[in-house]
Amino acid sequence: MALSTDGSVYVWGQGDQGQLGRRVVERRREGGLEPRKAPYLKRIIDIGGGSDHTFAIRKDASVFSWGANNHAQTGIVDARGEFDPMILWPTLVTSLEPYGDIRQITGGPHNSFAVTHDGGCLSWGRLYAFATGLDMNALSREGILRDDRGRPSILTVPTPIPEFKAASIAAGGDHVLAVTRNNKVYSWGFNLDGRTGQKDGKSDDCDDDIEMATLLDCPALKGKKLVWVGAGGQFSIIGAMP
Question: Domain segments of the chain: what residues?
């Protein structure tokens, strides 16, 4: 994705999950290799995306999304499900409207996250691997889909993470890091190879998943002003000032 100075969004690459915001006809798949404007989008001020889904924030604070929606990761609640549903065109995300202006929005493989202008941090999507950072026992039944064994599977509605006020957020491969407004970092989710930077507190094993958003407290960060986070598939990065 690319955002131009005139507020247009350009997309290119693989589009079989609707990631390009337009249909790519099989016999003309090479058309996905060329950057083209995403339809219906004007006055866009920021963009973000996950593995197979995409977001755009308009100047009036409206949020649009498109792409894979099998775990409700686009935030469009009435078009989600297990059988490869997708949002083919940029579509207004009404589920975010109750939370006011969105400052940043991004996604991982099956989840999405938004930061509001007042520091709220919202999370939704697949509930496996603890990627939402929420206390599973505290979630309301409203908005929860369950699998065939009755276990919570998908959080369909954006839900606040209450532990901190966020400045920015980054999502990797089912693990997430957030910078707070007071320059701390919280992390959570899938923790193979210690990618969250956390131990679970139950053992010395760094591979145990971090179930809830947890303050990252390690010697290397002592006394540092933490200002930026990034997350890849199997690693994380933190930017700090002395």
Answer: 43-241
Domain 43-241 in this protein, CATH class: mainly beta
Residue 190 neighbours by CB under 8 Å, 6+ apart: 129, 130, 131, 173, 174, 175, 196, 209
- What are the CA-CA distances from residue 240 to residues 170, 223, 226, 227 (Å)? 15, 10, 4, 6
Average pLDDT along the chain: 90
- 59-109 pLDDT tens trace: 999 999 999 999 999 999 876 555 568 999 999 999 999 999 999 999 999
Closest C-alpha among 29, 62, 64 to residue 49: 64
